[in-house]
Write a structure and sequence with these properties.
Length: about 110
Amino acid sequence: MDDVERAFNAEIGRRVREARAQAKLTQESLAHQAGLTRGSITNIESGAQAPPPYRLVRLASALGVEPADLLPALQQPGHEDELPDRLANTVASLASAVEWRAQDGQV
């Protein structure tokens, strides 16, 4: 894992932790609602583990936020080129899914 990926994972973790605090959930209760273990929540929040897209969606649902809310913004100039392809593709697919749901009236 390179520095860019570490920073990306850490930012996701920070956003999950903030959303969990906002929702007044413990790590244990978030884990239960999202179908994960408390250890997974701890690892995600610390940036040691990045959730795959399906887990990110489950976390977002349990937290009452959109999956895109848990992802670092990519609108900063030049930031898109810094992400490894697999991360950029994941971010793009989640953004597309959220946009599709919005157009379909589901958001």
